[in-house]
Design brief:
alpha+beta; Nucleotidyltransferase, domain 5; Dna Ligase, domain 1; about 35% helix; about 25% strand
Length: about 700
């Protein structure tokens, strides 16, 4: 037996999905311990091994591939535990990180403080050098001055250095020399050179990516090596450990330690990968090629669209609030998140309004009903109080919830303050939480020219089943697919993530004066890098390459991606005309307007090499009549208590239709069908029709 294990460590639970050579076998959860995430992974490993009748050592000994997805980098940036990092740039440009890109929300709120740069000015240093846009060296690098700067960095005990010099994407010789001097004068200090990480002709994005990456290197190297070491102590023998990255693929651990920025927000990037697989396998893509993949866990609610069946990518990936956070600048799966999930805390503000989230109770102490000491009401507590979650069947009965603690927390903090019963207050908490998620989906779709009424939803995450049918009703979507193992959607995505490497070249040109020589040289450089990446991967698996142009109409501000397929370059005007036509069509699809024939500008070229992973069969819903449970429980819907049918997933038959109000209990999630809705049971998913107007 040969296994593939994928792990996604979230804020509340660590999800582990196990597959053999043929199919996905199961989902296992362990509570995430912030102080040591490996504890949750080990608990999940023990559950998986027990289910297979093996020890953990035997399970890991039979494991061919282990894929790890972590929020460690994102968390470190949020809480400020990254390395002490310096920023080195061209003289006269120390404010790249301060100015960002100039955007601002709430422009009339003059009291809003200006956001702090990722690296403070006290650790920002300028070098005497200047390369022009055509690669010409206007001012040679002053090596003696550079040595003085590096000596000062040593005195300041910096742990990492981000080097971003102007136009190094055209001529990197000065950055390369600075790197050599860092090796000589500051041995052991991690550094990142911008032209190697993100050769993009947008100065802030390139600089931001560079310093974030440098600041993560000491932390992520230690973290990944620790995870790898402890897995091998438990019996894992294969080489190497694979780590998920921001573009929805996986890469070797040794590669990730050299470019740890790719691990930031990589967990949510896997949900659209799984959503795409489920949509195709379950027939959702036959209803609509536009899919909204949503993932509601314990701390966050993530949304990632599929347009025409394809994953959407973006370079506008913010860590934190847009404009006020920090941008990675890398091509990333286009997912956005808000603080909404099962652990979101409900409270009444000073104005007497009920709010839910973004603060979360996490895994420890967690919701009040966990009994770990939490006393603040959460969405999970509300779901227990209204009868949606069976306290004796949480995680398949492995964890018993305390209804009295949930009701007490809701009464103390919400019901008594609003003059409501506990059931009314709990229902209000769920309604506000659902509305937060509904409005976020609307914002994410309408802003991109997507009409939710033309979409279907693929819903995952442990808490998504509680409200997704109600949310879908408000959105007016065509239907909702809730897959088997929905509670581990991102971890399932890891089973279908290919080994990928992404390379880019910031060569700007335009359709009316196309620079064939420089563009073709950029393609040659990317192909050479891809050859080297494929050699490192080795092994079996179908390989493919695809290229993308990041283009815009002349003088527009933002670019859109234009897929080019696999190509070696541009041979003449016919190839440029093909690029123009592709751009016009995509611009029409995205913005409902285009200007056929108007000159376009390409500011960057991107290439991806992909080695396809094995594709295990998706898990099906086994039917065991002995497991069929048809009982009733009083649950609270639309302001009244209703006798509600309860079903256990193991006993449901393929093709069975369930009419709401009803509740379907999976081991790792609960699916609520409100009055007026229906759910069809299929082999791979539950298909919900929301009903309503």
């Amino acid at each position: 037996m040969s296994y593939t294990i994928t792990v996604d460590t979230g804020g509340t639970f660590s999800d582990l999905v196990l597959a053999d050579e043929h199919e996905v076998l199961g989902l296992y959860k362990g509570a995430t311990t912030p102080e040591d995430v490996f504890e949750g992974i080990q608990v999940a490993l023990e559950l998986a091994a027990e289910d297979q009748g093996q020890t953990v050592a035997e399970l890991l000994g039979d494991t061919r591939t282990f894929v790890y997805s972590t929020t460690h980098a994102s968390n470190a940036i949020i809480v400020g535990t990254t390395a002490r990092t310096a920023f080195v740039t061209t003289r006269g440009h120390p404010d790249i990180l301060v100015y960002r890109e100039g955007g601002r929300d709430n422009s009339l709120n003059l009291a809003m403080p200006y956001p702090e740069p990722y690296v403070p000015r006290s650790l920002t240093f300028e070098l005497d050098e200047r390369v022009l846009h055509d690669g010409t060296v206007h001012i040679p690098l002053d090596e003696e001055a550079c040595r003085r700067v590096l000596a000062r960095l040593g005195e300041l005990e910096v742990e990492a250095v981000g080097v971003c010099l102007l136009w190094s994407i055209v001529n990197p010789s000065h950055e390369v020399r600075v790197g050599e001097l860092i090796d000589e004068m500051l041995p052991g200090v991690e550094y990142t050179l911008s032209h190697e990480l993100n050769p993009l002709a947008r100065e802030y994005r390139r600089a931001s990516a560079t310093v974030i990456d440098a600041s993560l290197k000491p932390l992520m190297r230690a973290h990944l090596e620790d995870i790898d070491h402890r897995l091998r102590e438990l019996g894992f023998q294969s080489d190497p450990l694979m780590v998920t990255h921001i573009s929805g693929g996986v890469m070797r651990m040794d590669e990730m330690t050299t470019k740890p920025l790719h691990s930031v927000d990589s967990g949510p990037a896997l949900a659209p990968v799984a959503g795409q697989v489920y949509a195709d396998a379950g027939g959702a893509s036959e209803i609509s090629r536009d899919v909204l993949v949503v993932d509601a866990g314990g701390t966050s609610f993530d949304v990632g669209p599929l347009r025409d069946g394809h994953i959407v990518y973006t370079r506008e990936k913010w860590l934190g609030e847009k404009w006020y956070g920090h941008m990675t600048g890398l091509p990333a799966v286009d997912t956005r998140s808000i603080g909404a999930g099962g652990g979101s805390i409900a409270q009444v503000d000073r104005g007497g309004l009920l709010t839910v989230g973004p603060q979360s109770a996490g895994a420890h102490p967690g919701p009040a009903c966990y009994g770990y000491g939490g006393d603040r009401p959460t969405v999970t507590d509300a779901a227990v109080a209204v009868g949606y979650i069976d306290p004796a069947f949480f995680l398949g009965g492995r964890m018993r919830l305390d209804v009295d603690l949930a009701r007490r927390a809701i009464d103390d903090h919400v019901a008594s303050r609003l003059g409501m019963s506990v059931e009314e207050a709990a229902s209000a908490i769920l309604t506000v939480s659902n509305e937060n998620m509904r409005s976020f989906v609307t914002e994410r779709t309408v802003a991109q020219g997507i009409n939710p009424k033309d979409c279907i939803i693929v819903a995952g995450g442990g808490s998504s089943g509680l409200g997704i049918v109600s949310i879908a009703r408000e959105l007016g979507v065509l239907g909702v697919f809730i897959p088997k193992l929905a509670a581990g959607l991102s971890a399932v995505g890891g089973q279908y993530s290919d080994i990928t490497s992404v390379f880019s070249q910031g060569v700007a040109t335009s359709s009316d004066s196309f620079d064939y020589d420089r563009v073709n040289a950029a393609f040659a450089t990317m192909h050479k890098a891809m050859d080297e990446a494929d050699t490192r991967v080795g092994g079996e698996g179908k390989r493919s390459r695809a290229f993308t142009a990041e283009a815009r109409y002349a003088n527009q501000l933002w670019e859109i991606d234009v897929p080019l397929g696999d190509r070696r370059g541009f041979d003449g005007p016919d190839d440029v005309a093909d690029l123009q036509a592709r751009f016009d069509d995509i611009h029409q699809a995205v913005f409902a307007v285009n200007e056929p024939g108007a000159p376009i500008e390409v500011i960057a070229w991107r290439g991806e090499t992909r080695t396809a992973s094995a594709r295990p069969k998706l898990p099906t819903l086994p039917t065991d009549e002995s497991l069929r449970v048809e009982e009733h429980r009083v649950a609270y819907f639309e302001g009244r208590s209703i006798e509600t049918e309860i079903f256990r997933a193991g006993g449901l038959r393929d093709g069975e239709i369930i009419e709401g109000p009803a509740i379907i209990e999976e081991e790792t999630t609960t699916i609520v069908a409100p009055p007026g809705s229906t759910i069809e049971v299929t082999a791979a998913a539950y298909i919900a029709t929301p009903g309503g107007e």
